[in-house]
C-alpha cells in the first residue's frame, strides 16, 4: 500500500470491532530497535484505544525480522492469542541480504496465515532508507504499527 498522502495512524473507531475480549500477541524484532519500538508503541496505543486490555497483550522479542516467523508460530501454539502482530524493520543495504530477509519473512508470515487459524499481521517495514522507516514508524506518514493493530482487531473479529 502506498503511503503517499496517507496517514497510517488514522482510523475510524466506529468501523472497528471492540478489542475488549481479544488476546493479542506482538512479536517484535530487536534489529533496528529505534524503528521497531516506534511501531510497537503505535500498535499498543491503537489496541488500547480500541478496548484491548494490557493484560491481554503479550509481547515477545526476537533478534531480527527473519526470526519473526518462528516467534509468531510459537506465540500461536503456546499463548492462545486471537491474532499476532509481527513487527520488524529491514533497511536496504549494499548486499542482497535485504532481499532474502524480506522475501523469507513475508513468505513465512503468509505461510502461517495459510496453515493456522490465527491471523498473523505483517508489520515489517521494508524501506530503502532509514528516513523512510522513521517516516512510517511515527513520523510524517504516521505509524504502520497502528495500522497493523487495526488489521489485527478486524482479523480477530473475523475469526470469532
TrEMBL record:
Active site per UniProt: 97 (proton donor)
InterPro entries (UniProt xref): LS, LS/RS, LS/RS_sf
Gene it is expressed from: ribH
Molecular function via GO: 6,7-dimethyl-8-ribityllumazine synthase activity
Family the entry assigns: Belongs to the DMRL synthase family.
Record EC number: 2.5.1.78
Residue ranges that the Swiss-Prot or TrEMBL entry lists as coiled coil: none
Binding residues for 5-amino-6-(D-ribitylamino)uracil: 31, 65-67, 89-91, 122
Matching NCBIfam families: lumazine-synth (TIGR00114)
Function of the molecule: Catalyzes the formation of 6,7-dimethyl-8-ribityllumazine by condensation of 5-amino-6-(D-ribitylamino)uracil with 3,4-dihydroxy-2-butanone 4-phosphate. This is the penultimate step in the biosynthesis of riboflavin.
Pathway it works in: Cofactor biosynthesis; riboflavin biosynthesis; riboflavin from 2-hydroxy-3-oxobutyl phosphate and 5-amino-6-(D-ribitylamino)uracil: step 1/2
Organism: Sediminicola arcticus
Reaction equations catalysed: (2S)-2-hydroxy-3-oxobutyl phosphate + 5-amino-6-(D-ribitylamino)uracil = 6,7-dimethyl-8-(1-D-ribityl)lumazine + phosphate + 2 H2O + H(+)
Domain of life the protein comes from: Bacteria
Pfam families xrefs: DMRL_synthase
Sorted UniProt keywords: Riboflavin biosynthesis, Transferase
Name the UniProt record assigns to this protein: 6,7-dimethyl-8-ribityllumazine synthase
Sequence positions that bind (2S)-2-hydroxy-3-oxobutyl phosphate: 94-95, 136
